[in-house]
Design goal:
With about 300 residues, the chain is an alpha/beta fold. The protein is built from eight helices and 15 strands. It has a single domain, classed as Metallo-beta-lactamase, Chain A (4-Layer Sandwich), CATH 3.60.15.
Length: about 300
């Protein structure tokens, strides 16, 4: 893989919640730094894995193994090795992709012959299979979802019930929340960024207002004891949190739209707005804005508000 909508972030590589440029633009230019795999238990045989790319969720119990997302191929190999050690070489019953971006799915191929089934939303599977842009290397071998859904998927794996639910377009048009029901752990994928600027893939159907509603609906479906796994986090911040942590991103989007809208109303041009790099007022912990681009928050807010 990667698809033509592979994940783009502000930096070339960032571990534990970082963003990585598409493999076709960087893989042959430089070697990525060594991966330090870390498995962290949460509760009831559910935990998360960090290496290189989006945070992975996992379940390993005496009767079943499930994995949520797969990062990149190098870190996925370390992920699978660690899972095999914990499960005594049980196969992976279900590999679930929260969405299609390459930092969450490029490692799928490592699970070929091991994962019994790969699950994703129908739109995510469609994005994953899309051809790369003209002038880029062809798609390499990949393990694509063989079980797709449009609203809700739910199955029992071992002693745990796992639910994947689609709430509407947000970060892309195919993001889902994956909940380990008995453990009360919800993997948000890239629907949740812990205090860092979000990536908004409008080309893949993203919408800021839709994302805000998705966060409200998803947290309403869970309770105050739910532990949320974030797809990414700012430097030195955790990749798990509570409802307030998830809804902080909604509040960030509210402030972002208000800020950009005020600049448009004041007569600022697109270039003038994009030149503003200071942190969003009230959300200084997110850091300064980066370079403008098609998935950058100010750009997407400007376009969503109808700026010319």
């Amino acid at each position: 893989m990667l698809s033509r909508r592979a994940f783009l972030g502000g930096s070339a590589v960032a571990i534990v919640g970082g963003a990585v440029a598409p493999r076709w633009t960087r893989a042959w230019q430089q070697q990525p730094p060594p991966v330090t795999p870390v498995f962290t238990d949460i509760r009831r045989n559910v935990g998360f894995f960090t290496g290189r790319g989006g945070t992975v969720g996992y379940l390993v119990d005496a009767k079943g193994v499930a994995v949520v997302d797969s990062q990149f191929r190098d870190s996925a190999a370390l992920l699978l090795k660690g899972l095999n050690e914990r499960s005594k070489d049980r196969p992976v019953d279900r590999l679930i992709n929260t969405h299609h971006h390459g930092d969450h799915t490029d490692g799928n191929i490592v699970f070929k012959g091991n994962a019994k089934k790969v699950v994703a939303h129908a739109k995510a599977a469609e994005h994953m299979k899309a051809p790369p842009p003209a002038g880029t290397p062809p798609t390499t071998e990949q393990l694509y979802p063989d079980a797709t859904f449009t609203d809700v998927w739910r199955e029992q794996v071992g002693d745990e019930w796992i639910r994947a639910k689609y709430y509407g377009p947000a970060h892309t048009s195919g993001d889902v929340v994956v909940t380990f029901e008995r453990a009360n752990v919800a993997h948000m994928g890239d629907l949740a960024f812990n205090q860092r600027h979000a990536i908004i893939d409008r080309a893949a159907g993203a919408t800021i207002r839709g994302w805000m509603g998705v966060l409200e609906k998803a947290t309403a479906d869970h309770n105050n004891d739910t532990v949320y796994i974030f797809g990414h986090a700012n430097t030195n911040l955790p990749v798990t949190g509570d409802r307030a942590g998830v809804l902080k991103l909604r509040d960030y989007f509210t402030a972002l739209l208000a800020f950009v809208g005020a600049q448009i109303k004041a007569g600022k041009t697109r270039d003038e707005i994009m030149a503003m790099r200071d942190p969003l007022p009230g959300f200084e912990t997110f850091g300064p804005f980066g370079n403008p681009g098609p998935r950058e928050p100010r750009t997407c807010a400007y376009e969503e508000l109808g700026g010319k």
